[in-house]
Design a protein that fits this description.
Distance between the termini: 56 Å
Radius of gyration: 20 Å
Helix content: 25-40%
Structural class: alpha/beta
Strand order of the largest sheet: 1-7-6-5-4-3-2
Number of helices: 6
Oligomer: single chain
Strand content: 25-35%
Largest sheet: 7 strands, antiparallel
Order of helices and strands: EHHEEEEHEEHEHEEEH
Length: about 240
């Protein structure tokens, strides 16, 4: 008989409130997605209480993870379950309970309970990856706070690429504000129009640091660096 569903527990070296806050920030879902899974993040949940995350599932299906407000108990628990239209909901059930308990002033036990028909052998490496990734990210954020305790505002080019996407998510889960520099009209408040040939004078207004990850001409890099120097921005 194949074991289905799973209960997985581990301890990370970070305070309870910090661990829960990490999960609630933009980029958390992206950081937790194993690279071998053929899933894409279409939209993250705006709230762990009652938001909905959307994943792209081959071949062109969408997985909607709906958070259960009745189970929401910050900073100790949130729950998401498979929702949305068929055919996925015809074939599969899924309820994922995320629980958090302080093991001390600077450590937290995380317990994932997944109720589903998916075999435990498939879920185990996914949960192991997620908790290792979380522990690593929390350690990075702890080291960065030794340099500066206050959050930064960081402008990044190339945030739709294979390097820029995870870097932006790492920063935002650490509580930093990420400004996406895009070579098109902005679609959200977190984007600014960046013209590689003629960067606007106020492009980096209010920015503490800039990370240039977009591919392109060296001249565009020089112009962006000049704007950063004029604005007194770290690069």
């Amino acid at each position: 008989m194949v074991d289905v569903g799973i209960r997985w527990s581990a301890v990370v070296d970070a305070p309870l409130e910090e661990v829960f806050a990490w999960h609630a920030r933009p980029g958390a879902l992206l950081r937790l997605m194993p690279p071998w899974q053929p899933l894409g993040v279409v939209a993250e949940a705006e709230s762990l209480r009652d938001g909905r995350a959307v994943l792209q599932v081959p071949p062109g299906l969408r997985w909607v993870a709906a958070h259960d407000p009745a189970a929401y108990d910050p900073p100790h628990r949130f729950v998401d379950e498979l929702a949305g239209d068929p055919p996925l909901t015809w074939l599969l059930s899924w309820r994922h309970t995320h629980e958090f308990r302080a093991e001390g002033p600077a450590s937290t036990r995380i317990t994932d309970t997944v109720e589903t028909q998916v075999p435990a052998t498939l879920l185990r490496p996914v949960l192991a990856y997620r908790q290792a990734q979380l522990a690593g990210d929390l350690a990075v954020h702890a080291r960065s706070r030794q340099w500066r305790a206050e959050p930064l505002t960081v402008a990044i080019t190339g945030t739709d690429g294979p390097v820029g996407t995870p870097v932006a998510a790492l920063l935002s889960t650490g509580g930093h504000r990420v400004v996406h520099l895009v070579p098109r009209a902005p679609r959200t408040d977190g984007e600014r129009r960046w013209d590689p040939d003629a960067p606007a004078e106020d492009l980096l207004a209010g920015v503490d640091a800039v990370i240039h990850l977009a591919t392109g001409r060296a001249s565009a890099t020089r112009r962006l660096a000049a704007r950063a120097a004029e604005a007194g921005v770290g690069a």
